[in-house]
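Example 366.
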Amino acid sequence: MSAAPAEETRTFRAPGRVNLIGEHTDYNLGFVLPIALELETRIRTTPSPDGQLHIHSAARDETRSWPLADVSSLRPQGHWSDYVIGVAQQLIQRGFDIPALHLHVESTVPEGAGLSSSAALEVASALAFLQGRDLDRLEIARLCQRAESDFVGMPCGIMDQYCSLFGQEGAATKLDCRSLESEAVPLPENAAFLAVNSMVKHSLGQSAYRTRVEECAEASKALGITSLRDAKLDSVLATPMPETVRKRAIHIVTENRRVEEFAAASRAGDLASMGHLFRRSHRSMSQDYAISCPEIDFLVDAAVAIPGCYGARMTGGGFGGCTVNLVASGAVKGFSEAIREAYRKARGIDPQVIACVPARGAGEIQ
Ligand code: ADP
Ligand code: MG
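Predicted structure in complex with magnesium ion:
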C-alpha cells in the first residue's frame, strides 16, 4: 500500500497516559485502568526531497537519516530512534511503504517518568508514516507494542499503546488485556488525579522489568496455566514455587481484583474506597512486586499525610517515575504546594506536579 508523495506539512499527535491502577497486569493479560493525558508527542511531517527518511527529536536536538531502501533491514541501535524504526518495520511487514519524510518530533510527555513517552512516540510515528492511510486502531496499537517488545527489546504489554490510541475525554478506560475489550469508567467530579514526578529513574528499571516478566511466567508454569490472568489466590498460596515468585504472583492476582474494585468505587463516587485501594496497590507493588524505590515511597507516605489526599501509589513500570494521587478538588492547590515542599526538603528536588485530565486518543491535528 503506497502513500501519495507527501506534498504538505501534516501534524500527528499521540498522548501519554497515567495508569490509575493495575500495574504490571497488562503483560499478564489482566486488567488496567489508564487515562490518556493532555501531555502528548507531536510529529510534524514534511516532504523529504532527497528521498531519505529523516527523524529529528527536538528534545535531543538530534537528527538521524537513512535511505528509504535501508529502513526494512536496520537493526536496533539502543538509540531513541529505535522506537520509530521499529514502528516503520512493523508497517512495512504489514504491507505499507514508508514515504520519504522528515519527521520532527516534539513532546510534552516527560521521558522515563512512567507516563509512557515511548508509546506516545510509537503511536505518533505510526500515524506519521501512515499519512492518513487507513489502518484499524487496534492493529496500530498491536504493531506499536510489537515494535517496543521485538525491536526495542522491552517486553511490554498492550496498555500504553492502546491507551494512547483509545483514550477518551472525561473518563478512564478499563481494559481487559486478554480480550482487548474496554469500557469507560466515569471518574468522580469532586476529586482530581495528580501525578507527582519524582524526577528520578533508577537504571535497575529495565532489567527488573524483564525479570518480573520472567518471574510471572515461572509462576504460571508452576500453576499449570498460560498466564497469571487465570491464577487463583488459593492455588498461588498452596502450589510449590520459589517464595519470590509467589510474591510476584500474589501482586498480580490481588492487583487485578483491585482494578475491578476501584472501577466500581469510582462509579459509585466512593473516594474513601478508591484511596484505600491506591494505598493497598502501592503496598503490594512495594512489598510483593518489589518495584518501588525510596524516592517513590517517600512521595506516597508524604502524600497520604496531606489533608484532602485520599490515597497515593506509584504508577508505571517502577524504580522511579511518578506517583498518582487522588485529591479532593478543593485541596488540589494545597496538596501541590505541600508535596513539592516536602520533597524539596527531604530530597532537594522540585517534583513536577501534573493534573491528570482524561484526554482523547491519538489523531491528526487539522
Ligand atoms: P516512559 O515510556 O515511561 O516515558 P520508557 O523508558 O519506556 O519510559 O521510554 C523512554 C524512551 O523513549 C526515551 O529514553 C527515548 O529513547 C524514547 N523517547 C520518548 N520520547 C522521546 C522524544 N521526544 N525524543 C526522543 N526519544 C524519545
Ligand atoms: Mg514506556
